[in-house]
Amino acid sequence: MRVMGFLEEAVARGLVPGAAFGVVFADGRREAFHLGLAQREPHPVPLEADFYFDLASLTKPLFTLKEILKAVEEGLLDLDDPLGQHLPELLWLKDHPLKAKTVRELLAHTSGLPAWEAVYTWGFGEALKARSSSTLGPLGNPPIPTSATCSSASFWKGCGAGP
Questions:
Q1: Which of 79, 86, 111, 130 could form a disulfide with 104 if both were Cys (CB 3.0 to 4.6 A apart)?
Q2: 97-140 pLDDT, tens per residue?
């Protein structure tokens, strides 16, 4: 498999600390591969099959940006539109400064939101609304975490978060 050689070389040369990938073959067979380290600092931890990754950092360049730019091209929104203009149904935004932040600021990571928060673990409906209202602190001053968090470049095992 060419991809295996490519990833093994990348790990061996130190281009990435580790890599995990899966393959589903035409006949239905499935294989998963785990190479290198899940983290280098503060101490090396080998990448194992039961580690989970947050893919949030991939969704923006692979999916969201394409759709946003398509909407801009079609005249449905402008990058300088405030978020509240396009998401009025999010009532928790009503009195939050996030509603005034622009689409451009969100895409460029300049809105003042915390660098990473596992929002997908907060639940749904009223639970999500309550947690959002109490957790999203003043923009530019994210809440101080009470437990270790892991970035999308890290793993979840032992981080106090995740499934």
A1: 79
A2: 778 889 898 888 788 776 666 666 666 677 766 666 655 554 44
Q: Assess contact for 146 and 135: CB atoms under 8 A.
A: no
Alpha-carbon distance of 157 to 155, in angstroms, equals 6
Where do the domains of the chain lie?
A: 2-46, 56-135
pTM higher than the cut 0.70: no
| Residue 16 in tokens | 């990435």
Is there a contact between 47 and 26 (Cβ–Cβ < 8 Å)? no
Range ranked top by mean pLDDT from 9-23, 93-107, 146-160: 9-23
* Alpha-carbon gap, residue 66 to 61, rounded angstroms: 7
Residue 112 has what pLDDT? Answer: 78
158 CA to centre of own chain? 18
